Amino acid sequence: MYLIEKAEKFANRIALENDNDVLTYGQLLEQSQSLASGLLKDKDDLEGNRIISLLPPSFDYVVLQWAVWQTGGIFVPLPDQVPSDDLRFLIEDIEPSTIIVENESLDTVLPFADRDKVKTIDDYNTDSVKDLPSITNDRPCMLLYTSGTTGKPKGVVISHLNLEAQITSLQEAWGWTKQDKTLLTLPLYHVHGIVNILCCSLASGATCKIHSRFDPQAVWNEFRKEDISLFMAVPTIYAKLMEWFDYVDTNEQLKLAKALSNLRLTVSGSAPLSTSLFDQWSKISGHKMLERYGMTETGMILSNPLYGERRKGAVGQPLPGVSMKLVDEQHQEIAPGVPGEVMVKGKGVFSEYWRRPGETRASFHKGWFQTGDLSVEEDGYYRLLGRLNQDIIKTGGHKVSALEIEEVLREHPDINDASVVSIHDNIWGEIVCAAVIPRTELLSDDSILEWSKDKFITHKRPRKSLIMNDFPRNNLGKVIKSDLREMFEKLSELESDDNT
Ligand code: MCA
Ligand code: AMP
Fold this sequence. Notes:
By secondary structure, this protein is an alpha/beta fold. It contains 15 helices and 26 strands.
């Protein structure tokens, strides 16, 4: 296992840091091996058993992740605040052998799982370390859930080989070294936080400082210590950091700008980085942000260069070890300058969706993974043009399915039908908007938004609603979502006029 082998060389270096404590690579190895022994109990190998983690980003999260990998199990990180209906679906889909929670979360999970499967890390305290199984690279190590074009989220099966290929590609491209220190402010259930930040840092002997939740002031305070060398985040986080910067007085702004001077690299990805945000960041930091593009199923695909021109509005060139091409609707490769769908191949690319052979087959064409993203090559740089499927929404860097939200809204007792679109937002990239046809007169915008709070995880929750007699439809009766989007845009303009 790549990370474990690497860690052995860095035993005395600091792997992880939080506000109160540090964990060396040696301690991480020792604690994860001891926990692995506890998880194995009398077995020699967990043979692909799924172990769900509902732990927030923390030392315990990483110890558990490494422990599961060393048992031959599959690590399945989920958000620690999943609404109950989602949790029920996920537990049924994953069929875990164990669910690891923090003490406080026991009651949330117990209604959906056998009591003997729900554990805390402390349940596995043991002093005796067993011989751990040797794990071949082709075995799965993680299941990461991602929203798709069909209703429910799908588990993306990632093997140790996929993980190693994704890490080594980024180590090479972005010049990670053991002198680096990075700051993790992203959740640890997506590739961005797990692979690009945490795993790359740990594979390089660098230090990863963990903030369990994003807080703009805390990030600025961290930059002011001037020891963070590498920072990666989604555009929403940069927008929120800029919001904070604009809010403080000029004197403070000078200090914050100076604090950025020690950063050697700032990376943005997971959603489009606007040219205005690129410019604002460059103005205060003197850094040209490096924008890259990737996907849960593939890891990172394209990146602007570490050295050389980082082009505003573009996502650069294929990363080491990644083969990509642009194709037309007939899957024919197209010429530079012509837009086409991004297709990807490489050791980092996943091999299957968990227990969904049909969807797996449909997502590949002759061995190439079809991303559903449109791009064009211009003077050697790729630029993204959007998605083929308009029912996929990216909000705050999270991928969300409009169809999944519609299905949940239709469960509302006063809603007859629902149609979900997104509109542009300067902070969130896109925001979720729901149009609904009422079943009763009791329905109001406020009641929809209020009801949604318990039903959706924060990023899936509709932020605007419209109650309508019927949706705009074409002559086949299909909802014209572009017209709905326009209605929400007009509503949003009216609201912002009212606020000024
Ligand atoms: C939260 N709020 C929102 C949204 N989310 N409003 C509109 N749209 C949203 N999406 C509201 C809340 O209701 C609340 O409002 C207020 O904002 C603060 O909410 P909170 O949850 O505290 O927000 P936050 O902690 O500031 O979260 C913003 C965040 C988070 C840090 C940007 O969304 C995040 O971690 N995003 C990154 C996800 C990620 O890692 N993506 C990578 C996946 P009120 O106060 O009124 O209640 S993509 C990937 O991995 C691929 C491979 C790739 O390419 O990277
Ligand atoms: P996910 O499925 O959550 O892994 O999200 C992957 C999707 O995020 C991609 O298919 C793209 O649509 C989008 N994405 C990732 N990076 C970028 C970027 N730099 N610019 C625009 N979209 C991006």
